[in-house]
Amino acid sequence: MMHHDGKMEWRSPCPISSALDVLGDKWSLLIIRDLILHGPRTYSQFLDAPEHISTNILASRLDLLTCLKLIERTNPDAASRNNAYQLTESGAALRPTLEAMGKWAGAHLSDFHADMVRMP
Amino acid sequence: MMHHDGKMEWRSPCPISSALDVLGDKWSLLIIRDLILHGPRTYSQFLDAPEHISTNILASRLDLLTCLKLIERTNPDAASRNNAYQLTESGAALRPTLEAMGKWAGAHLSDFHADMVRMP
DNA sequence: CCGGATCCTTGTCGATACTG
DNA sequence: CAGTATCGACAAGGATCCGG
Q1: Cα–Cα distance, B30 to B28 (Å, whole number)
Q2: CA nearest neighbour of B36 among B82, B80, B81, B99
Q3: Contacts of residue B64 in chain A, CB cutoff 8 Å?
Q4: At A109, phi and psi to the nearest 5?
Q5: With contact defined as beta carbons under 8 Å apart, do B29 and A18 qualify?
């Protein structure tokens, strides 16, 4: 198993910049979204999301989010098979950010994306 | 001048996913942050931000954000020299998202990033 | 000079095949 | 089922060049 060496690179002391150092990509916040919407989730349940993340990207994001303690395994000691991931308190605290983001998209992106819906 | 062909790819109808289709990278929200914090800003002022975006990335992001009407030129008809970018109403509406994100980072990232400060 | 555009290198993403 | 290995495509970074 490959796991992160814990050495994060921070571009500046700005909190927003730091948040984006962790979450500034197209997938990390989608993983958090799935966990907020559906509760604990297994590897293959993440793969079933409509955005279709690929397996290696999912594994690397789960690894990073675990290292930074935004998520954790539901049963750390059990075999990885059928084991799930869940939010920590830190990950769950991203809910207001995601709500603000979803609200913004609903209000300001519908001109460009007619098929967008209220919530998945 | 090269400009975007307006064809965005949307991964799903989910608003959060759609927001991340636009803003899910390490730089776009930092541009919005600069505009919220400092008001209208020129090309070289963006380059002076402590995170040091490179010129080509900045140009392509400004172009995309302009196409999606999150930002606009302060004086569209004037020469590009010394012209600045400012937020539209749509871009300004991202303030709650950035505030939530900054608040989250301040509360949950300081264990990993000791040098982080309240606000830049 | 300022606002980019271009070139080139490096790194990350994404698809698919594969393994315990 | 939960990942890992591999490889090609593409995006980011960095330096420099150019038009006004």
Answers
A1: 5
A2: B99
A3: none
A4: -110, -5
A5: no
User: pLDDT tens digits, residue range A42-90?
Assistant: 999 999 999 999 999 999 999 999 999 999 999 988 888 889 999 999 9
Q: Smallest Cα–Cα separation from A39: which of A83, A74, A86?
A: A86
**Which CA distances in Å does B75 have to B35, B45, B66, B83, B93?**
16, 17, 13, 7, 21
| Token digits of residue B63 | 């172009």
Phi, psi of B38 (to 5 degrees): -115, -5
The three-class DSSP label of residue A108 is helix
Enter the tokens of residue A17: 């910049």
Note the pTM of the prediction, 2 decimals: 0.94
Nucleotides of D under 7 A from a protein CB: 1-6, 11-16, 19-20
Residue of A nearest to B52 (CA): A11
Q: Which residue is nearest to nucleotide D1 (CA to C1')?
A: A81
Of B16, B21, B105, the CB nearest to A102: B16
Output the distance from B10 CA to C9 C1' rounded to whole Å: 30
Burial class of residue B26, CB neighbours in 10 A (0-12, 13-18, 19+): middle
What mean pLDDT comes out for the span B96-110? 97
User: Is A3's pLDDT higher than 80?
Assistant: no
User: Could you give the angle at the alpha carbon of A29 between the alpha carbons of A69 and B17, nearest 5°?
Assistant: 170
